[in-house]
Amino acid sequence: MQSSKQKKLEQNGWKVGSASDFLELTPEEEAYIELKLSLCRTLKKIRTRKHLTQSDLAKKINSSQSRVAKMEAGDASVSLDLVIKSLFSAGASSKDIRNAIPQS
Amino acid sequence: MQSSKQKKLEQNGWKVGSASDFLELTPEEEAYIELKLSLCRTLKKIRTRKHLTQSDLAKKINSSQSRVAKMEAGDASVSLDLVIKSLFSAGASSKDIRNAIPQS
DNA sequence: TTGCAATATGTCAAATATGACATATAATAA
DNA sequence: TTATTATATGTCATATTTGACATATTGCAA
Hints:
The structure is a homodimer of 104-residue chains.
Chain A: H1 4-11, H2 27-49, H3 54-60, H4 65-72, H5 80-89, H6 94-100
Chain A binds a DNA duplex (30 and 30 nucleotides) through helix 3 and helix 4.
């Protein structure tokens, strides 16, 4: 039986582990995914703090509202590159990004 | 005339600015590229500190020596996702990654 | 020198991420 | 209710990133 946490990851399109290793994440996989999801949450926080709509932000990064929505939902189809670019474009500081990195 | 800094970026394959705006980076572009390059340098530092060859690390991340070399060279063809995954696989801590984020 | 391990560079088909678009859902006001 | 704005979800052709491979270069010991 899967944990609800993992279920949620898989709902978002995350391929958790390899085919032969379906239930476990390596610590490295886990750290990477948690870092990414934390940055996605931070993006939503900062965007709303700056009173920007998803469409506003999309325009700034030459993308579309739907892609911003996917980023903020932590969808597996979006790259860290786009999340970081979006954070800066939304007005995040390096400090904001630093603080978004989970402990340990 | 281009700055040597920009020349170096373009040597590494970075598309700096748009076609119409060839000399300037937006502050957001600049922050993103600097963050990425800093993480690439950190990867090399940590890998060597751990006495791993590029091939060793490549094996850990199911990639190839040449891609690790490109990462460490700050080549524009590598994603932040791969750099972050590599950092964790090389044994970097969240603190290491946090510290790699440039100020301001 | 020569030999060998490590790293760098270039290329390419396959895999993945992309913006754009349609459309669904939610939230809020009139 | 309806209208409107914001956000969510699904799809798809195109663009970018991928691991793999060949091969060049570097560094260093014998």
